[in-house]
């Protein structure tokens, strides 16, 4: 067997992994050149990935799914599993996104982290993340996927807590890991279900047998996978960690908490498509979770004053769109992935823009203390604007091609479902326009509200170039992918969807969407560009206060999980010390007491123990013999 | 062809090594160096044994037997199953590491030598117990192991060592006595049953080797299954209780945190990493092999205790304030997983449990060592008093602690993940509810490790700790191989699994009848 392009895909993972290991093990000795290696690794992966992508591009549908065997991994006598890769349009789309956007963000980070004494370690973690993410999307089994799945969770933990000398940042990192782990229990259980019901863990085995699963097992697996997706993708009810995750350096927020890792949940659901095809209930649950989160994120984003947290809420909301689409079956799944790609570009671009603004603002993130930056940071302003137009879904910018399609698809179906889901998706578009415009205008337009001793300036070229490339993607990616027939190309991975008409005519939906978007943007223009923005948040009623506090998500978690958990821990600790250990000590005293009575000889601990033991043995032997003879 | 008595060599050498340190004055002055050299010789012997084991065949390999007390049917019988082999390898790998870790812990060379000699003596018992193929011989070793451990805790431990050592001793002696009752019961039963087969050739053998495991399970397979269920169950219980004290299962666990707290971290590595595994090893090699019917009967009661252990240990670890006690509680949680895997009776769960025993030794061993390095620097084991902000001061130690901690919570990539997953997924096939509840331990694990890391290593660095030294070269060599081994086995577990699989499959067949008909496939 010769070297085929797909067999090189293992290299895509190994390169950044090796780089990460080297950077961590070399220590301070690598400080001088660490960032160079750190950029080189994902760039090299990108090149290899392109070779693989090109080789698969032109193939017939049947040849576009290739399983690559790497090595025999686990054989328990109950099941055996090889480590292998699945190279197909779905995984290649992700690989392209991760390596391309990843490389850009690595380049950006060279300048962004230039002054940090731990830049090498930063790049090591970033490389580790890229390797784990690529493993996640390339794995050909749920178990190997899980290795990448927890790997990205670890990288996320390390990077959120990169500046963990601030206690709240360290707390945010831990919170993210724990929320993810709660989701991971879902994935572990899903795999246990699969193993019991299908005897295997590879996609081929599990998904091949999915149509034969009983309704209840399919539902169980579907819901367990959904729990995992909720943890990783910050979907309701496991959404609360993402806002705090903004503690990480901004390139991290761009790469991990916007473009790639948080979309892994969508990947998991789409990858498991045949399974969800067997269970209407789980599919609907996915769609509902997506719908709730898309509204939740959009509303919360409207009340945030922290630039990065607006973008985080927005990410949550946009992933809600993707989940909603993924829950609609193959017809929605294609658009979920399309939106995932366009979102990866424009959201990464927006985050990098935010990072550029933070550099100009001396790390300030409060949009009430910004304004008028369009004049001093022209490149940042222009690239941010492209991202803004893209997320709003203005034609022909990228978001229009993907989000509009999701809204349209949400209106497909029977009964109450299309009306409810479609309306939520439509409303979400309007709110998105409002909060994103609020952000854009508050930062770049209106009067300057920053301190006089700040001297905002444009960022260096190492930062503006990646932003420009991503902005180009925000402008072009949508129509380019539509033009080349991306959704058809995906079909071998996600299945063919029958054409279906939405309950409202498509042009009406598009028109309504655009109308709401313009209305949302116009409202924001009046409130945050025309009118002067107050430097302090104005007093507000209970509803706005609740929204500002993320609908009290942390208090709810505190009440439902943390407080009872602490009480339980205290209770268990007391029981362990006084009841369990106490009982044993009590038995000890009791036997010593009995021993004192029984013993014939002298004092001394050893002897009394010996006496007790002799008695004990005799009793036990007696029992045994009495029972046996 | 004259074959080398590998197992006897393996058992005798550490005894000789320990005695040489005590008896030869010239060696006493170079005690640390000599002990490490001797332990490396033992490691080489273990590697030789492995090579020989691989070229042998059968489930029990390199077997050797000689009469010991023929009147009672006691023999010196040794032989290695796959599970025994990996445990022997684990023990022989950990001993040199522990000796190196203790390099400058003792104030005088005399005490260093004494400590090292005790560790070597313990090694002899550990290796022997994993090789033993005679129930009585096993029992003697099971009890004799207490002696070096008692002194390791009682003479070389820290604060509260006398009390902790005594508590350990009492728990263990009680367990040993309960087991002795079982041993006597087994003897009487086996004799009685053997006499029923007066015309069979087994009797001649049986009278002199009723304690031989191979006779009991292979030749004597006719003996045990015809046992009346009541004595079988009682004998099973007596063994099980002894093992449940050793590999502490809720509610028999409270001696372990005290012992781990008082012992030197190096001692704890061997105590928790290897010695406690004698308990789970015994459950596999004795309880399941000799009493399959009783094991089936008891499993529905044992498994809930295992699940409670998983959660109880996890919650206690979260609430615990002392790092050594915390690690002890994490181990109680892990032992819960192992016991769950043993009594789920699927080959996936069983191999998960036996692989867990190795991985837990590596992972918890490394965690105790890392904690030891921390305590040495900070002079306290209080989690709240050690930090905060040590990551900025001692980044390598921080990274090491985190890596080792993540291996303890079974992060994929580490071998611990493969064993934990196999236990959960394998148990799910027969015990879905219990396995599902035990899976919650995964979240608890993340909490206890990350909480400790957060308190010790994150936050603003303390100025008064600015001079704390990072890991020395020696310390890196102590812990590096353990992390490397866990990563290597995480991605390439095949060598270990290949050694463990025959035992797992055979045991499950022994208990359930031919496997595969009900496990794995839902059809």
Layout of strands and helices, then pairs:
The complex is a heterodimer of chains A (629) and B (523).
Chain A: H1 9-26, H2 34-57, E1 66-75, E2 80-87, H3 89-112, H4 119-138, H5 142-160, H6 167-198, H7 203-209, H8 215-232, H9 241-244, H10 250-259, H11 264-271, H12 273-277, H13 280-301, H14 307-326, H15 330-360, H16 378-392, H17 398-410, H18 416-444, H19 461-483, H20 486-494, H21 506-530, H22 542-548, H23 553-598, H24 605-628
Antiparallel strand pairs in A: 1-2
Chain B: H1 6-23, H2 25-29, H3 31-55, E1 61-69, E2 74-80, H4 82-101, H5 109-131, H6 135-144, H7 146-156, H8 161-196, H9 202-208, H10 213-217, H11 229-246, H12 255-262, H13 265-275, H14 277-290, H15 292-319, H16 323-343, H17 347-378, H18 383-386, H19 390-393, H20 395-408, H21 415-430, H22 432-438, H23 441-457, H24 473-491, H25 494-512
Antiparallel strand pairs in B: 1-2
Helix pairs in contact in B: 1-3, 1-5, 3-4, 3-5, 4-5, 4-13, 4-17, 4-24, 4-25, 5-6, 5-7, 6-8, 7-8, 8-9, 8-11, 8-12, 11-14, 11-15, 12-13, 12-16, 13-17, 15-16, 15-22, 15-23, 16-17, 16-21, 16-23, 17-20, 17-21, 17-24, 17-25, 20-23, 20-24, 21-22, 21-24
């Amino acid at each position: 067997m010769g070297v085929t392009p797909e067999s090189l895909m293992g290299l895509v993972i190994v390169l950044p992994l090796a780089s990460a290991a080297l950077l961590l093990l070399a220590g301070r000795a690598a400080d001088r050149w660490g960032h160079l290696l750190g950029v080189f690794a994902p760039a090299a992966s990108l090149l290899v990935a392109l070779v693989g992508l090109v080789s698969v591009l032109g193939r017939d549908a049947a040849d576009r799914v290739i399983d690559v065997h790497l090595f025999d991994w686990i054989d328990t006598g109950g099941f055996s599993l090889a480590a292998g890769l699945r190279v197909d349009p779905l995984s290649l789309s992700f690989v392209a996104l991760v390596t391309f956007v990843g490389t850009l963000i690595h380049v950006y980070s060279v300048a962004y982290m230039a002054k940090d004494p731990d830049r090498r370690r930063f790049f090591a973690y970033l490389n580790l993340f890229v390797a784990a993410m690529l493993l996640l999307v390339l794995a050909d089994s749920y178990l190997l996927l899980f290795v990448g799945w927890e790997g990205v969770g670890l990288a996320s933990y390390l990077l959120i807590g990169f500046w963990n000398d601030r206690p709240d940042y360290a707390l945010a990192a831990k919170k993210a890991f724990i929320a993810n782990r709660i989701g991971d229990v879902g994935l572990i259980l899903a795999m246990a279900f699969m193993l019991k019901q299908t005897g295997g863990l590879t996609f081929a085995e599990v998904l091949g047998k999915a149509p034969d699963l009983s309704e209840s097992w399919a539902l169980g697996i579907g819901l367990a996978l959904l729990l995992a997706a909720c943890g990783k993708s910050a979907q309701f009810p496991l959404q609360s960690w993402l806002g705090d995750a903004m503690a990480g350096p901004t390139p991290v927020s761009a790469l991990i908490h916007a473009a790639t890792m948080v979309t892994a949940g969508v990947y998991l659901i789409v990858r498991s498509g045949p399974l969800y095809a067997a269970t209407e209930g789980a599919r609907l649950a996915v769609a509902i979770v997506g719908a709730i989160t898309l509204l939740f994120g959009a509303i919360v984003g409207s009340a945030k004053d922290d630039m990065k947290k607006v973008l985080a809420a927005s990410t949550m909301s946009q992933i809600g769109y993707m989940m909603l689409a993924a829950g609609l079956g193959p017809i929605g799944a294609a658009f979920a992935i399309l939106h995932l790609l366009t979102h990866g570009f424009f959201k990464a671009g927006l985050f990098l823009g935010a990072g550029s603004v933070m550099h100009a603002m001396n790390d300030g993130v409060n949009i009430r203390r910004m304004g008028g930056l369009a004049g001093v940071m022209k490149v940042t302003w222009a690239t941010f604007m492209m991202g803004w137009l893209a997320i709003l879904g203005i034609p022909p910018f990228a978001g229009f091609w993907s989000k509009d399609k999701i809204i349209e698809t949400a209106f497909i179906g029977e009964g109450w479902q299309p009306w409810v889901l479609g309306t939520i998706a439509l409303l979400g578009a309007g709110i998105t326009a409002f909060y994103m415009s609020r952000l854009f205008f508050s930062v770049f337009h209106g009067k300057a509200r920053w301190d006089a001793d700040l001297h905002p300036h444009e960022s260096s070229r190492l930062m503006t170039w990646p932003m420009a490339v991503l902005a180009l993607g925000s402008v072009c990616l949508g129509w380019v992918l539509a033009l080349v027939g991306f959704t058809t190309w995906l079909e071998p991975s996600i299945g063919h969807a029958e054409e279906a008409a939405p309950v409202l005519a498509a042009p009406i939906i598009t028109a309504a969407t655009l109308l709401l978007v313009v209305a949302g943007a116009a409202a924001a223009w009046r409130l945050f560009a025309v009118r002067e923005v107050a430097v302090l948040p104005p007093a507000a009623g209970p509803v706005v206060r609740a929204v500002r506090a993320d609908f009290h998500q942390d208090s709810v978690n505190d009440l439902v999980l943390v407080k009872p958990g602490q009480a339980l821990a205290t209770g268990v600790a007391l029981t362990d010390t006084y009841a369990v250990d106490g009982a044993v000590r009590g038995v000890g005293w009791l036997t010593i007491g009995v021993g004192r009575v029984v013993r014939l000889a002298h004092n001394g601990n050893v002897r009394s123990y010996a006496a007790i033991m002799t008695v004990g043995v005799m009793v036990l032997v007696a029992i045994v013999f009495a029972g046996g003879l | 062809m004259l074959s080398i008595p590998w197992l006897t060599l393996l058992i005798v050498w550490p005894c000789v090594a320990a005695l040489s340190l005590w008896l030869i004055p010239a060696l006493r002055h170079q005690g640390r160096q000599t002990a490490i050299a001797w332990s490396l010789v033992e490691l080489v012997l273990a590697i030789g044994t492995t090579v020989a084991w691989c070229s042998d065949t059968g489930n029990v390999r390199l077997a050797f037997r000689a009469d010991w007390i023929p009147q009672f049917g006691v023999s010196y019988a040794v032989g290695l199953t796959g599970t025994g082999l990996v445990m022997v390898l684990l023990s022989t790998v950990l001993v040199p590491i522990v000796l190196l870790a203790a390099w400058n812990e003792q104030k005088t060379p005399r005490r260093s030598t004494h400590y090292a000699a005790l560790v070597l003596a313990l090694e002899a018992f550990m290796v022997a117990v994993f090789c033993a193929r005679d129930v009585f011989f096993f029992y003697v070793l099971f009890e004799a192991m207490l002696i070096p451990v008692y002194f390791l805790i009682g003479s070389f431990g820290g604060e509260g060592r006398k009390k902790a050592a005594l508590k350990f001793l009492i728990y263990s002696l009680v367990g040993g006595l309960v087991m002795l009752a079982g041993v006597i019961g087994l003897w009487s039963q086996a004799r009685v049953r053997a006499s029923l087969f007066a015309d069979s050739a087994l009797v001649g053998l049986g009278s002199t080797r009723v304690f031989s495991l191979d006779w009991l399970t292979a030749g004597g397979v006719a003996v045990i299954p015809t046992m009346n269920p009541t004595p079988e169950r009682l004998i099973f219980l007596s063994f099980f209780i002894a093992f449940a004290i050793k590999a502490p299962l809720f509610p028999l666990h409270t001696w372990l945190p005290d012992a781990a707290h008082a012992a030197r971290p190096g001692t704890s590595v061997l105590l928790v990493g290897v010695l406690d595994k004698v308990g789970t090893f015994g459950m596999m090699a004795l309880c399941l092999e000799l009493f399959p019917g009783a094991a089936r009967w008891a499993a529905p009661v044992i498994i809930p205790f295992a699940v409670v252990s998983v959660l109880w240990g996890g919650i206690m670890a979260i609430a615990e304030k002392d790092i050594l006690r915390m690690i002890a509680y994490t181990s109680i949680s892990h032992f819960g997983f192992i016991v769950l895997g043993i009594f789920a009776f699927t080959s996936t769960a069983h191999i998960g449990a036996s692989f867990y025993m190795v991985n837990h030794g590596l992972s918890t061993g490394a965690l105790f060592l890392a904690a030891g390095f921390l305590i040495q620097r900070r002079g306290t084991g209080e989690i709240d008093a050690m930090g905060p902000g040590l990551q900025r001061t001692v980044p390598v130690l921080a990274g090491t602690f985190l890596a080792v901690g993540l291996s303890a919570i079974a992060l994929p990539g580490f071998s611990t993940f493969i064993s934990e997953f196999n236990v959960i997924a394998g148990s799910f096939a027969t015990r879905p509810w219990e396995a599902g509840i035990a899976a919650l331990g995964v979240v608890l694990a993340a909490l206890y490790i990350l909480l400790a890391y957060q308190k010790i290593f994150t936050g603003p660095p303390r100025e008064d700790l600015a001079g704390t030294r990072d890991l020395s070269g020696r310390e890196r060599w102590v812990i590096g191989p353990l992390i490397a081994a866990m990563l290597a086995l995480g991605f390439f577990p095949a060598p270990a699994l290949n050694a463990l699989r025959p035992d797992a499959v055979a045991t499950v067949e022994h208990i359930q009848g031919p496997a595969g008909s009900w496990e794995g496939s839902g059809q």
